[in-house]
What does this fold into?
Amino acid sequence: MSFIGKLNLATLGLLCVTACSTTGDPTKGGLIGWSEKKATVRRDILQDRADDTQEEVDAVTQQNDSLESDVDALNSDVRTLEIVLKQLTQENEELRTTFDQLVKRSEKAKTEHSALSRELQITGNRFNVAPLGEDAAKQRAKHVDAQNRRLHTAILLLLKQR
It folds into this structure.
């Protein structure tokens, strides 16, 4: 066989290897037998897939927008609740302070009451054991008068605290 014959045979072999069945995909198949009908069908299939994918993207986008709206509403609720919590915390602190002050006043009043009760008992005991002479009676009357003034002052102080 001559060189040209061998070349023709090699070219024919290469054409057989590279020529595939006809497809609509120009990236697949060979140089021979491309079909416009198959390419149109393939293009229609790809367009249908693209349309389906776009519908899925639109649905996901709509769902995302709805979720973002929900998040915005929840964030607004959180801000409102934080304001209410701050107000309630402040009110609670004020009530705690008032309560502590009232407890201190009550303890002070109890202490003063105990002191006055002891003083009254002591004064009562003095009257029972003291002699009742004229000078002693005047002295006792002055003492009782002084005690009454102290008791009167203490009572006024207690009334002012309430």
Notes: The chain is about 85% helix and 0% strand. The CA atoms of residues 6 and 12 lie 10 Å apart.
